[in-house]
Amino acid sequence: MGRKEFFRLQWLGHARVRAYAIILGVCSLASMPWMFADAMRPGGSDFIAFWSASRMVLEGQAAKIYNPNALGEIQLRVAYADIVPFVHPPQFLLVIWPLGFLNYAAAWLSWTAATYALWLITTRRLFPTLGWPIAAFPGALVALWHAQTGFLTSAIQAVIAWQFRRGPFRAGLCVGLLVIKPHLAVLIPFALLASRSWAAIGGAVLSIAVTAMASLVLFGESSWLTYPSSWAVSQYLLETGSDAFFLRQVTIYAMFRAWGWPEIAVIAQSFVTLTSIFVIWKVWACDGPTDGKVALLFALTPLATPYLFSYDLPFLVIPVAWLIQQFQHQWSKPILVAMYFAPLACRAIALPVGVNPTSLFCIGMAVCIYNVLKESRTSG
């Protein structure tokens, strides 16, 4: 084997990919006891916001979940150092309220295991031949460490991709579930409008309405009346966050904010968001494989929002896996391997280097997907 063939990873076949993925998965699991111990210490995990909100619901205090002081009283039961506010919409309570039946440690473990399993099942359904590489996806490891919403929202995104194969209305119903983290769906309305998917739009509206009504009936109108007060918390964090806070995010806005350029951050983010909308509109308005359009949609999602953390990225395995099935470039294997490891690698170097390059990786991935779609239209 020559040097060029070696660096093109011609030796990396299906059997070796599977074996390396198993090794990677085992090594990833080895980190979990340390992460669990870290999460149990005071100030160790933002998951405390979910657990304390669910406890308040079970204690009949759903009206106070957006009151930081009331939430902090619950968090003190596990000796938490700082108050971690609950900022998700009331629909999210439909998912997390059973956590309140468990103690904090058991809730953390149950949430992590259940949401990881949900993400793995839904994503493997899209790509059944890539089971082990999906299970060991480095972007999922970051979510596993944080016990946040990344697996749940990424599972919803996987179901959206699956349902687009079956019917737009069902896909729309799933789109509505992303209301629990709406900035992950910022590009979807433009995609649906461009493709004139009225059934999907109707499904999304219906889904949002039903979940809103269910949360209103179960948790009371006070939770909805006080929810807007949480917006000020998010705005405050965006305006005053530290460099470390922004380096843990994956957006263009955060990248420039970490460099101390707030005005340029707004301008750059606005430009990239508008460009992403333009590209999505152009692609979804034309004929082409729906799976590829969805892959492009998810690749551009981290670019379209100013607020997104590294633990939200398990869904990026969908555009990576789609490219694995489609990409025929002579350097495709090295490129795909780089994309596969990028979410974890970018997060790992962010704090030491002072820049989180995830957004640049997403641009490169989106360009690859766009070119594949363009070539398929040309050849078709």
From TrEMBL:
Any one cellular-component term (Gene Ontology): plasma membrane
Entry keyword annotation includes Transmembrane: yes
Family matches, as Pfam families: GT87 (PF09594)
Keyword tags: Cell membrane, Membrane, Transferase, Transmembrane, Transmembrane helix
Top-level division of the source organism's lineage: Bacteria
Residue ranges crossing the lipid bilayer per the database entry: 20-37, 95-121, 171-192, 198-219, 264-284, 304-324, 356-373
Gene Ontology MF terms in the entry: hexosyltransferase activity
Membrane topology: Multi-pass membrane protein
Entry similarity comment: Belongs to the glycosyltransferase 87 family.
Protein name as it appears in the record: DUF2029 domain-containing protein
Organism expressing this protein natively: Novosphingobium ginsenosidimutans
Lineage of the organism: Bacteria, Pseudomonadati, Pseudomonadota, Alphaproteobacteria, Sphingomonadales
